[in-house]
Amino acid sequence: MKKLKHLSFILIAGLLALGLFSPNVYAKGHTVMIGFTGPLSGPAAQYGRDNVNGLEMGIQDINAAGGITVGGKNYKFALKTYDDHIDPTAAVNNARRLRSRDGARFIFNPVFNTIAPMMQINQQKGSEFLMMAYTSAPEVDAMKNPNTIAIPPPFSVYVGSYVKYALEKGWKKCAMVVTLGAYGDGWRKEFESAWIKAGGEIVADQPANYYTETDFSAQLSAALAKKPDFMLIGGPSATTGLVIEQARNLGFKGEFFMVDQAKLNYIAEVNFNNDLTKMNGVTGTARPRDLAEEEVIEPFLKRCLKDYGRSATSENLLNYGAIRILAAAMEKAGTVEDITAIKAAIPEVLPMDAKINLLPFIDLWGSRFILPGTIQKIENGQYTVPTTTFWWTKSDADFKKAVSSIPDIGNTNVNVPLEGYAK
Amino acid sequence: MLKLEQVYTDIGELHIIHNVSLNIQKGEFVTLLGSNGAGKTTLFRTIAGVLKPAFGTVEFNGIAIDKLPVHKIVDLGIVLCPQGRQLFPELSVKKNLVMGAFSLRGQKSKIKKNLDRVYEHFPILKERSNQLAGTFSGGEQQMLAIGRALMSEPSMLLLDEPSMGLAPLIVKQIADVISNINHEMDTTIFLSEQNANMALNITERGYVLESGKCVLEGLCKDLKNDENVKRAYIGA
Amino acid sequence: MELFLQQLFNGIMFGSTYAIVALGLTLVMGILHIPNFAHGHLYMLGGYITYFFITNLGFGYWYSLLLSMVILGFVGVVMERIVFRPLTGQPPINAFIAAIGALIFLESLALVIWGPQGMRIPNPHPQIIKMFGITMEAQRLLVVGGAAVLIVLLHLFLKKTTTGTTIEAVAQNREGAMLTGINVNRVSSMTFFISSATAAVAASFLSPIFILSPAMGAVLGMKAFIIVILGGMGSVPGAILGGYFLGLIEALGGGYISAEYKDVFAFGALILVLSIKPTGLFGKQEG
Fold first, then answer.
1. Shared domain check, A209 and A196
2. What is the sign of the dihedral through the CA atoms of B194, B197, B201 and B205?
3. Which is deepest, A232, A360, B34, B182, by most CB within 10 Å?
4. Which residue of C has its CA nearest to A185?
5. Do A212 and C83 lie within an 8 Å CB cutoff?
6. Are C214 and C116 in contact (CB under 8 A)?
7. pLDDT tens digit string along A38-84?
8. Do chains A and B touch (3 or more CB pairs under 8 A)?
């Protein structure tokens, strides 16, 4: 009996150890330590992993190319990851640990709820770190934190595109079943005010917890009773897929707009076994293969499939691009420690060769990368030609200039300048 | 039939039973006298296998039972009717009784026969067979507890203070039934009591337990006349 | 009216699942007096086992469900044997910690084997049925009907068979049960088997409608606890009624007032019931 007890103990301890210590990569010699804290277990674990996978691939490529040379010394990159279960306290503790113990001056995090508290501590004298924020929440920009770089386009870009599209269709009534939390609340509020301003009407607002719920029929029944023309939905991809399926089963015939956290190709794969006819009328951020030229993106997609057994997501792509830009900026600034100088060097290295950082990162706008936002609709069981939105260009001339500066991949380009979005 | 040799039992850090040896023959009706806290219940629980002796052996029909689990001891034929009755309060009277025959599971006719016999001894249990045991009065519960213990047709019945907390009239009634069981069914009975009057009147032989030690043993008629017993257990 | 019926149906469907999961939990709680925090995670594992048989081995839905029941039942037995039984007689805190250990173990196990991404069991009954003006998936109807059948079967087992009665007997008086010759360890194993097998049924019913993920058990496990406390620890009718009650409260409260406060209704009901009757709806006073 005693033996059995010990055995179970050892088994549990062993598994815990597996979970805690597996994905960390150390390198010898001079090292630039990259930190990551995010959800690696729990409902958002896959989302967290997708971010880490992008960073891992980027670091592999940086090291395979011989690392970077700064001040005559050669540096290799290494990644240290911690799980924070989207708990702000854990995220802050992880960030402190990453900075002080692991020496990471560049810390990635993919959830706004945990990014915000981390931004409270990234300017403390002697333990500054560059907050690499993978979030589209525009609040990050409003916080004007100099030690932050937000990676994806702000979701206001998609709000603008969706409103424009809905007006063209002549729709009036919108129902919202969006995920709870700071990110989802931001989306709902921003979409609501933009849609009402455009003359539309919000007939139902039924937020739901996409992280803990799997049945949305209560919210959907209530929303559909108001006969909406279209719905704004979304949160983590898998549960967003459930919302689409359940709404269709309840008889909804209209179209869906998805918040940018939900990914078309992920939903198609996990929820519908790649049967796109089940996703007709769904619009969301474009799938990765429509974000860059084929010869650039295809090898990357194949690599994700081979290395991780999964189709690439935009988390893979954007984090990959961000780490490559960071490496180039370090070389340019001639330092691996002075984060202010490194950030300042970023505009100088952009735009980079698409073969290196895949996506058309154009510049830095305050604390955010300038990168067009691309949406795409599924119709007749197929992905349609995506619409790429240029959001930072004020005049037509600016727009044309920006369009010509990035590779033409056959997408429709539109100019929807963000109002009141301060640089 | 039942033989204890130099049994010591501890509960936690406390040494409750010290060096008890006793021997009961088949068909005997024996009492265990002792005041509150003398260790009667602990000794019974040791025999039934709920507690394991720290030292010494318990043998039943020549088989060492001191290391067997309780249910195996029940299968061998020793059943303890415990102090506090330990009934199933949310089950009906009938289900309590049927559970008592668990070691006979599958033998429907035997269970039926035993059930009828228990009802014969305690007609009130038959009247109230669908009532929940928890709603019974103390006396009725004691009858049910004895009835349940009889359901498996034990060859040896350990009765731990069946008279505790009951009115004299009920004690009398229960004493009659116990005597009947011993005579008619040839069940060996080991009865622990503080109430020496009742116990010494119905049993044949007795042991006296004090502070976990067996201080006296003998035939009831001798014990009744023993000065110490008189003073301690019968009262002036 | 249609909306009301739709919400009612949703509530009953969820209530059905809650009821069978809580039923399994309450049985174990009644017998061992330990809160098996890992119960929701057993449910998760049941879903994955069904997934494994359907997707990896190509078995039929019902066949996979049965296999999942049996296998998870034995997982429960093993868990009782190596995690909980060695702790009998020790302070309850030890069982608490062991249960949490088991929970982390199961979630990590699923994470290692199947990875964190969501997975789907193909829906065996994707038909849409319209009745009384409401729309429902056939699989959801199956959940409601299947859960009802399972509850009735379990009830008959507990009330009408000697083996079933031993579970109640051990729950009501462990030592009394021992003294009647019941092997309480075997009853504990059996209870864990039943408890885990019903969790596997619930998971197999629901996973074609939803998504499998290693974390899915945590929320349901927590709700099952609310129900068990609400209904009274160890009470079977409490678990069943509590399950349907919680399902209805969530659906109606969530649908009519606000989904944002869905959990507030559930916990609100819990606090209300406990403040009026601290032992839960069907709970008995200790003693």
1. yes
2. positive
3. B34
4. C260
5. no
6. yes
7. 999 877 888 899 999 999 999 999 999 999 999 889 999 999 999 99
8. no
